[in-house]
Design a protein that fits this description.
The complex is a heterodimer.
Chain A (H helix, E strand, L loop, with lengths): L9 H10 L3 H9 L4 H9 L4 H15 L8 H9 L4 H9 L4 H9 L4 H17 L76 H10 L4 H4 L10 H29 L7 H27 L11 H7 L4 H25 L4 H31 L4 H21 L2 H11 L4 H28 L5 H4 L2 H4 L10
Chain B lengths: L6 E5 L2 H12 L2 H6 L4 E7 L4 E8 L2 E7 L2 H4 L4 E4 L2 H14 L8 H7 L5 E2 L8 H4 L1 H9 L4 E5 L1
Parallel strand pairs in B: 1-7, 2-5
Antiparallel strand pairs in B: 2-3, 3-4, 5-6
The chains are: A mainly alpha, B alpha/beta.
Chain lengths: ~475, ~150
């Protein structure tokens, strides 16, 4: 192609003029097949026109079949790296300088790697940049604009137009984000939950935002310096409670991790919310471990964990969610209430208050999901009832067989290990447990299971508040 | 939180709650706690005084006097005799914020029926979810020169 027939892109010509770079050198470079973008970069970088002219002279000579002389030091390096002489000549014909070739040899580039680099460069020279721009024609919904509201730009606010269509069944086995154009090359990611009823909760996107907005940091949020030690028995009892909170958090966090990979991306609101829940439990593990160590006690005794195993062994997400976020989170809220009530410092109270905030968010998802699930699958009511019966029974067995946690709570609430203190602690614990069972049943009622009150496992019935006498 | 007292108002009154709303909405620290979205009722039964507070995003969006029925339609309501409210607010005034015996959580745990009540087991959990914001809201009353009946 002659220099005269080359047309210089307007922006490139303007750049050359601004930088005082000769237009004929631009045309010669284009004629040799150098991409306009690469030429513009060189001009922007302030390349010396004389050096460019010398380089172009050499390139034109080589392309015209002129002999290529390879310096001895480069040849010696090439032999050491097992590069052929022809490979070097081919590199130079693509426009590479001898200094560049030598640099690549010194850097240890293998001959096969160099060949791939040459092939790519030749292809660009022949066909232009590999830009089909087909992806710009993706037939997704364009023109969607979302304005930030009082809470900023929230995840839920993006659900407008077709992006707000959340199907009852998600047909994609890949990690494709909802609303994107499917790629037929994408492999299956092995999800197993594709049905909205199996995981959805209408408040998931809002709960995600709430979790992000209200997150706290154990290391700096808690005034660790101003938490004095409780008297020895209570400090030890608190450490035992903290040990239990750590153990429980580990199981729940693990369980969420196990289920996240099963959930398809059609329902990303739930997935991202659950990611925050897993993080919440990591934080609970962190804060309660720190509190146990703070005043020199450390970890207490492990609990058997029978009922935690039931959570981990769940075979259906709604089963896991109901046990984790309604039964277990209600129980943890109860433990935090005891911890808060027994607190003698603002720091201790803050730990339990912040943990309760997180746990109440989890119950909110659990109850909303169960409500949604039962509205779509009312025939599954007895199945869910069975899961609750199972976890209540396992909890009862554990609570009855291993009194460690219960005794620690009694010492905390009673304020010591003397006879009167233990009596007071037991009296208070009964009151707190009554409240826990009431709240648990109340959440189930809100989720669509008011009948569970009648089926409550007999061991837990002892905590139910006495019904008001008939007038 | 101890700051110069700027407003004088009688508790309970709409003016008192409006003053509290303005203090909280001008407080950067309240925003930093995070979003709070809930409707909270206030019930002072022995005076038959009822208010509804609407929290939205980073602010107190609305504050109004209401009927008992309206209060019971909130996510939850705080219910106690006037003497308990007065004791709580006097404690907040004296300490700059509620001490552990007068915090919302403690009052809730002390009352057999709870201080925070609701007709819906799910909506009541908003009391726990936003507890730090709610406590901060009442603690801000230390900046009001509160007159009691």
């Amino acid at each position: 192609m002659s220099e005269q027939s080359i047309s210089v892109p307007e922006s490139l010509a303007q750049l050359a003029q601004e930088k005082g770079f000769p237009l004929d050198l631009v045309k010669r470079a284009l004629a040799l097949g150098f991409p306009p973008g690469a030429i513009a970069s060189q001009i922007q970088a302030g390349v010396d026109p004389q050096a460019v002219a010398a380089f172009l002279d050499e390139q034109e000579r080589i392309r015209a079949g002129g002999e290529i002389q390879i310096p001895d030091d480069v040849m010696a390096l090439a032999q050491k790296r097992r590069w052929s002489e022809e490979l070097i000549k081919r590199a130079l014909r693509t426009g590479m300088t001898m200094e560049r070739v030598k640099g690549l040899l010194e850097a240890g580039l293998r001959a096969d790697q160099m060949l791939r680099m040459i092939i790519i460069t030749e292809r660009i020279r022949e066909q232009g940049p590999p830009a089909t721009l087909e992806w710009m024609e993706a037939k997704t919904e364009w023109g969607i604009r979302v304005k930030p509201g009082k809470k900023g730009l929230t995840l839920g606010s993006l659900n407008v137009g077709t992006y707000g269509d959340i199907p009852d069944y998600w047909p994609r086995q890949t990690e494709m984000p909802r609303g994107a154009l499917p790629n037929p090359l994408s492999p299956s990611m092995g999800y197993s939950i594709y049905e909205k009823a199996e995981l959805w909760a209408d408040n998931a996107a809002d709960l995600y935002e709430e979790a992000i907005q209200r997150q706290w940091k154990p290391a700096t949020h808690i005034p660790w310096d101003s938490i004095p030690s409780l008297p020895e028995p209570q400090e030890q009892a608190l450490a035992q409670l903290c040990t239990y909170m750590c153990q429980n958090a580990i199981v729940v966090s693990d369980t969420i991790g196990k289920w996240l990979k099963e959930m398809s991306y059609g329902y990303h609101e739930v997935k991202v919310f659950l990611a925050t829940v897993a993080y919440d439990y990591a934080r609970h593990f962190d804060v309660f471990r720190k509190r146990a160590y703070l005043n020199g006690v450390g970890m207490g005794r492990q609990s058997p964990g029978y009922y935690l195993r039931v959570i981990k062994d769940a075979r259906r997400w709604t089963e896991a969610s109901t046990m984790m976020f309604i039964f277990n989170a209600s129980f943890l809220l109860h433990l935090c209430q005891v911890g808060y009530y027994a607190s003698r410092s603002e720091g201790d109270a803050l730990i339990f208050r912040l943990a309760m905030q997180d746990l109440a968010r989890h119950t909110s998802y659990g109850a909303q999901h169960l409500r949604y699930f039962l509205s779509r699958k009312p025939e599954a009511l007895l199945e869910i009832d069975g899961y609750l019966q199972k976890i209540e029974a396992f909890f009862a067995y554990e609570d009855d067989k291993d009194p460690t946690l219960q005794e620690a709570l009694i010492v905390l609430l009673g304020g010591g290990v003397g006879e009167e203190e233990l009596k007071r602690g037991w009296r208070l614990l009964k009151r707190f447990r009554a409240r826990w069972i009431s709240d648990y049943l109340w959440r189930l009622e809100a989720a669509g299971m008011p009948e569970r009150r009648k089926g409550l496992f007999f061991y837990l019935r002892q905590w139910l508040p006495e019904p008001a006498p008939a007038p | 939180m101890a700051q110069e007292t700027q407003v004088k108002a009688v508790f309970p009154s709409l003016e008192w709650f409006q003053a509290l709303k303005e203090i909280v909405n001008a407080d950067e620290h309240y925003r930093r706690i995070g979003t709070c979205d809930t409707t909270m009722g206030i019930k002072i039964n022995d005076l038959q005084k009822y208010y509804v507070v609407t929290f939205e995003a980073f602010e107190v969006a609305d504050m109004r006097e209401a009927s008992e029925d309206e209060v019971e339609q909130c996510d939850f309501w705080l219910e106690a005799p006037y003497s308990v409210w007065k004791d709580m607010l006097q404690n907040i005034k004296a300490n700059g914020k509620a001490d552990l015996q007068h915090s919302l959580n403690t009052l809730d745990l002390e009352f057999p029926e709870g201080f925070a009540r609701s007709h819906d087991g799910l909506r009541r959990d908003a009391f726990y979810r936003f507890n730090q914001s709610l406590q901060y809201f009442f603690d801000a009353s230390s900046r009001i020169d509160t007159q009691f009946l």
